[in-house]
Structures are given as C-alpha cells and as structure tokens.
C-alpha cells in the first residue's frame, strides 16, 4: 500500500475541482497517457472515465470508476489497467487548512488478487514515488493552473509548470 501526503496552497474546493475534472487526470496522474472520454456526471458514484495508461509500446486502455465520494473532502476510485497492472483502490482525502490551503492524502492499494502480484511490498517503493510525483503535479494544477475540460487540455503554462 502507498500512502502519500502533500500540502497544497489552494482551497479544498479548488483541489476537489481538479479531482472532479476527469480530463485533468491525464495531466497529473503519472502513467496516465490520455483520457479518452468521461461520463458527464463524473465524479458521481458509479461514473467513469476511460483512459490509456502505460509507456512506450506498452499501453493499456481501461477505465477508472468512482466508488464513493464526499465533496470536497473525499474521492474513492477504482483504477483499472488490466491485464497488465490490474486494479487499484485509490482514495483521495482533502483536509482544509484554513481558506486557502489543503492537506491532501493519496492512498493506493491493490484491489484484486492478481493486482497484489504487481502491487506488492517489493513494488510499493515505486508506487510511492509515482504517487508522490502525481501529488506534486496535482499541486501545480490546483495552485497555478486550470484543470483540463471536456473540450481540451489546460493551458500550456499550467501543463508546463
């Protein structure tokens, strides 16, 4: 299991706005190459976005589904990258720290038995590093950029920070 935290100098509502934009996941989640489409009601429970993940010639199309949520404080996702990486439960916790700051926690653990073969104690340090970089990217989007929208990616300035 990976457990990462970061302080973001933006309101909990702003952080959750980025988490609520399915098309922004391609900008901040390490390994997410492209968001293909998203249910219009995302991030409602049961809604999904479809993505392509991977690197180089190894790419997988699958989807991420919202398991539960309590905006702007918690979003629980089931991220799938089958059969290559399996499935992971990802919980995003956003704790307000005043009006313009939030403490964000990202918890990821294997969701299925086959996933436990990939996400195991030996791979946990790599998952931890990947999630630390993902949170740094989320921080940049929440503090300085605009999340992507269904009509296109965020500004080049936001994506390049």
From TrEMBL:
Pfam families: Polyketide_cyc2. It comes from the Bacteria. CDD domains: SRPBCC (cd07812). InterPro entries: Polyketide_cyclase/dehydratase, START-like_dom_sf. This is Polyketide cyclase.
């Amino acid at each position: 299991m990976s457990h990462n935290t970061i302080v973001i100098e933006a309101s909990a509502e702003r952080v959750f706005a980025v988490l609520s934009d399915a098309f922004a996941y391609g900008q901040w989640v390490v390994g997410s190459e492209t968001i293909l489409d998203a249910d219009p009601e995302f991030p409602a429970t049961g809604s999904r976005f479809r993505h392509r993940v991977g690197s180089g010639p190894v790419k997988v199309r699958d989807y991420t589904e919202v398991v539960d949520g309590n905006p702007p404080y918690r979003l629980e996702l089931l991220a799938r990258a089958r059969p290559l990486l399996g499935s992971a439960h990802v919980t995003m916790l956003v704790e307000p720290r005043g009006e313009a700051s939030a403490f964000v926690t990202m918890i990821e653990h294997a969701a299925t038995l086959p996933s436990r073969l990939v996400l195991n104690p030996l791979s946990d340090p790599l998952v931890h590093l990947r999630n630390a970089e993902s949170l740094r990217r989320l921080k940049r989007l929440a503090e300085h950029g605009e999340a992507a929208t269904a009509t296109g990616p965020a500004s080049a300035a936001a994506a390049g920070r």
